[in-house]
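quick one before i forget lol
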Amino acid sequence: MQILFSVAFVHLLNDCVQAVLPSIYPLLKDQFALTFTQVGLITLTFQCTASLLQPWIGLYTDKRPLPFLLPIGMCVTLVGVALLATADTFAMLLLAAGMIGVGSSTFHPEASRVARLASGGRFGFAQSLFQVGGNAGSALGPLLAAAIIVGHGQSKIAWFTLLVLVAVVVLVGVSRWYGGHLKSAVRKAGVQHVAPLPRGRVIAALAVLAMLVFSKYIYMASLSSYYTFYLIEKFHVSVDTAQMYLFLFLAAVAAGTFAGGPIGDRIGRKRVIWASILGAAPFTLALPYADLAWTAVLSVVIGLVMSSAFSAIVVFAQELVPGKVGMIAGIFFGLMFGVSGIGAAAMGHMADVSGIEYVYRIASFLPLLGLMAALLPKMER
């Protein structure tokens, strides 16, 4: 439990720092005179660097685990945050976003493997605890950004380097534990190398899971990247008020994530995946037509329902391909970041052309892809 809480805590710090980036988009948009397309490109740069490396790092470390890759990757994030605090051009903003993304891509596959190793067999619970740390950090990021950065200037971003330094110290301890348990980890991984289904069915199931991640995270990107702009434009609220509404949504995401894994351990992950993505559709379809109060309520419900799927999806995929914990974690965390980045860039262009409200009307149909969960095989023993 100490190791699980340690990696979840670092996930909180890591994602809190990452959440600063979209939280200060209004500030950067005014300071650098950015278009919505350029805002989307910043997100795309971060998400692509955070996604493209993850599967390869996971595949490599499945064969040759690198315990101290965890603190090394966090040091790369430290450089990115320092650059973000001092950037004076759009190109430097992109470089800073890319460095933070590289740090993320080295953290997630190995940290997910450590969580599974320390799970004691409760894989859904461990993945949820790990993931909820990240979601809690994403929820705290906008609050800290509002308190520390908004109204005080870009240079105040430098305070977040302190959080990264704490993460580095904790990860050094985790890496020592991980290094001492590598032989045990290899033995446990080797026991489960027999695939539970024929290769064709495994590939088909992974493709369905990828499409479900696509529907979930493109919609989630519309909220995390543009929710503040939507509230400011449609309801004329202040930036600070919009940040509070974003915090409510992200806090609901954290709560839903924690519930998804343990529930999946008990009732089956396929049921959780089905209910989480398709179950959010009525609320996403209603959101573009709601007033401010109902927008807040609906965003919280959407966050609770949709977020419960990801832990179940990751563990489901790891059960489909046993012995490839790091690769599968890298693929799905990478797919999450990559899809979010592409979706954010596309929706930013759409917002420039047709308006931010149009983005939410189009994105509201994405959870209907949850119908594809019916194609997943039954994996319960």
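fyi DSSP finds 17 helices and no strands in the chain.
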